[in-house]
Amino acid sequence: MTTNKAKDRKQKAIEKQQNIIDALKDHGAKVYGDLDNGQFPKFSIPSRSVSNIVYDKKLRQYILGNSAALRSSRNSSQLRSFTQLMWLAFFANRLTHEKKSSTLRDVYYSSQAFAIEFEDQSESDNIIVDLEAVLSKPREDFHIFPEERS
Amino acid sequence: MSSIKEKFNQISPSEFFYRNRDLAGFSNPTRSLYTAVREFVENSLDACDQKGILPDVHMSIKAVDPEKPDPKPYILTVKDNGPGIESKHVPLAFGTVLYGSKFGLKQARGMFGLGATMAILYGQITTNKPVLVKSSTDGKIQDEFELLLDIQKNKPVILKHTTKEVTKQGLSVSICLEGDYAKAGSKIKDYVYETSLITPYATITFDDPKGEKFHYSKIVNEMPPAPTIIRPHAHGIDVETIRRMMVESQFEIPNIDDVMVEKVRKDLGLAKNNLAFTGIMDKAKKRWKTLSRPVRVVISLMSFLKMDFDKLNKIRIDDIDVPNKKLYYWDFGDSQSKSVDMDPESQYYKQLTGTVQGETLTTFLTKRFQRIGPSTAVKFAEFAGFKPEKRMGSMTNEELVKLSDSLQKFEGFLSPDPSCLAPLGEEPLAKGIKKFFKPDFCEVIQRPASAYSGFPFIVEMGIAYGGEIRPGGPHVYRYANRIPLLYDEGSDVVLKVVNDTDWSRYKVKGEPPFVIVTHICSTRIPYKTVGKENVADRQEIERELRLGLQFLSRKLAAYMSKRGQAEMAKKRANLYAKYLPLIAQFCTELAGKTKEPNYKKLLEEEIIVDDKQS
Hints:
Chain A is α+β, with helices and mostly antiparallel strands. Helices cover 53% and strands 15% of the residues of chain A. In chain A, the strands form three sheets. In chain A, strands 1-4 form a two-stranded antiparallel ribbon. A two-stranded antiparallel sheet of chain A has the order 2-3. In chain A, a hairpin with a 4-residue loop joins β2 and β3. In chain A, α1 packs antiparallel against α2, α2 packs across α4 and α3 crosses α4. Chain B has 614 residues and is of the alpha+beta class. Chain B has four domains: 204 residues, Histidine kinase-like ATPase, C-terminal domain (Heat Shock Protein 90, 2-Layer Sandwich); 66 residues, Orthogonal Bundle (Helicase, Ruva Protein, domain 3), CATH 1.10.8.50; 106 residues, no CATH class; 139 residues, Ribosomal Protein S5, domain 2, CATH 3.30.230. Chain B is 40% helix and 19% strand. Chain B has 18 helices and 17 strands. At the A-B interface, α1 and α2 of A face α17 and α18 of B.
């Protein structure tokens, strides 16, 4: 039983990983396609404002509603955060593939290796939340944790 | 009682200016050197302007003894390619105060030819050296004079006069004067620089005492149209001017000589037969309407003299005394002065008084002033309370004052004729500004002519931004009648207008690199001081300056916002160039591809958008 249960959990974890990888790949392919077609790629990011938080009776928790903001690379004021988001997706993809994990702080520092500038950690934290919203998955799913895991 | 008797004596103009030399800008060695430079250069430019010659002015200042500390004697030489001065006028022109050719009513840099003589006078009193003048009017023979001024007599003293053959016409003046180049140098350099900006059609070179050479070649090859001498405007007149004009307006009594008598005979149809006095008068009466004024005058005189042509030949008319109704003449036969009474009722009397008393008020106004027609003249006469047919010669002093006052007050006159002005023109001004400041943006405007108290004026302005202009602007370059104004900037009307402008409204911020050039042309610039350095804030001039500046500022604002847009677009293009490759890199790996997407198209598209905007 226990082995079964453990197997089950492991199976679930692998499935989860695959879901994340697929989702990231989907987004990557979409952006790739846009660029290749001479279009400015964009993300739809669910709004996290109070008005967009609704209670889901089935899940018995609060979830994000339908309203979403568009982050386009065409808009020069959004270009930077768009790139940051792209980078984070790219970084998360690597983490997941390599089965490594990272912390919020580590993400902030890792960005520097890719010429991605975050003003401070809170900016990178925000982008992480953005990615959570885009993928509708908690950050732990793509191997980013608040604290170093012992 | 005081025992000292006061002595009264008259001083000559030279003496007056010798004693009051600071009036003309010769107060100290620094200022004097600068003023002397100005006077000579401006005379050269004026002379060339008048003859339509593209000026080529060469100036040099050399220290007599370079080792001595300032102030010390310098030799100032200014040479031009102008028309020169005729040999007979040279001594008077350079050796007499207030002798000149510039008294006419039109725009020129100098007004009276006073300055150059003042410089010579100053040189003479500080170094006791003569002035050296070389002049050639035909480009073949050159007259060389060495002159001193006799200050007390206001007369030139010729020390030496030689002639020699040359190949170029022009004038060269060389004086020795005490100056302080160490202090005046920067002003003189500024002056030369700024002069060449406002006279882009002139070539100016300057060799300074330290061996530095400054050369400003002409940038345009066409002279701006020369101003014309015009009649005065009614608003700019005073009693003395009216009096002088009246003298011109009165007709001389014709000289009765053989030629005149022949003419009268011919006009009366009496060329052959000789009629007696009464016969002549009858004939004249019949033909009166066809006779010319001089003939009528002669007939009128004959009517009172009761003489025929033979007798008329033996006398000379001396005077017509209108108030006492007497006619004086000299009888050659008896060798004595005689007089006859004139009958005031006679039509001949009216003819004579008309001649002696000059034109009627309306004729006087229409003929002697600019832009007054017969109907305006009649309206004015009504306004001033004179009969339109009132003879100018019959006006009393009080009436003249009243006339002069009314001329200034009457508002029915047209505004003054600007044809006596010589603005530079928009194109040469813009060329000059572009050449001198190498700006990114330049705009000029010539305002329509306007007038203040009877003097016409035109305001020209230019504005330039960016390029090689140093920051910390606006830098204001002021000109009046093509003279740069360098001193006393603070109290000038131009600066007042510039400082009143809120530049942030025109999108000019911080320490902007920009230049404002203003040029006021007028037959009389209302300088605040005799030194000709700052223009008084006459309301009319201020208004024109303000309107001109506002126009230019709006153009500048349009340019600035365009410039801002272009800068923004450039920034954006840079952003795309920086981030798009990153996005491409990340998504390639995310999508599991090996080749990067072709995002170059997007960058190119951005650049095209930029081009459209800028």
